[in-house]
Model the fold of this input.
Amino acid sequence: MEPPPEVQKKLIEAVSDPALGMHRYMPNAGYEDVREEIGAYLKQRTSLPFTSNHVFMTVGCAGG
Done:
């Protein structure tokens, strides 16, 4: 069965709106703002000079 027309319309709107920014690939190392937060957390937690350049995010161990 096909979804109701209202659902189809909303799905098309969701994938067509570039302002949402949710339908794209992330950079290979991960989103910069997330990496910055993780680097700051590691720096605070360990007293070592971590930055976002020390953080690389993957989608699993095979990617890592």
In short: The radius of gyration is 18 Å. The chain is about 40% helix and 0% strand. The longest helix spans residues 32-46. The mean pLDDT is 86.
